[in-house]
């Protein structure tokens, strides 16, 4: 199964990390990417898009809800394409994502 991870965060300047926190977060990000190198796809699957009737979820502060129902006050700050054997595995990977307020998980397919 292939998934799109949308990384979301608050656009409020008061919620932005300090330079030291950004550096620490970047190190955590690199560590997360190294741990999940087999699941993170280098590029999006060719001619892909949301899978009709596919699975989705939102992981926020360790809590997982059916998705995609994100808060309108969050912005997309980045994305990755992930390959995992199930939604449960994708959620497990998303729970470990550092630095972002929430991760929206959308199953995708190729056409």
Automatic annotation (TrEMBL):
<comment type="similarity">
    <text>Belongs to the YciI family.</text>
</comment>
<dbReference type="Pfam" id="PF03795">
    <property type="entry name" value="YCII"/>
</dbReference>
<feature type="region of interest" description="Disordered">
    <location>
        <begin position="1"/>
        <end position="22"/>
    </location>
</feature>
<protein>
    <recommendedName>
        <fullName>YCII-related domain-containing protein</fullName>
    </recommendedName>
</protein>
<feature type="domain" description="YCII-related">
    <location>
        <begin position="60"/>
        <end position="108"/>
    </location>
</feature>
<dbReference type="InterPro" id="IPR011008">
    <property type="entry name" value="Dimeric_a/b-barrel"/>
</dbReference>
<dbReference type="InterPro" id="IPR005545">
    <property type="entry name" value="YCII"/>
</dbReference>
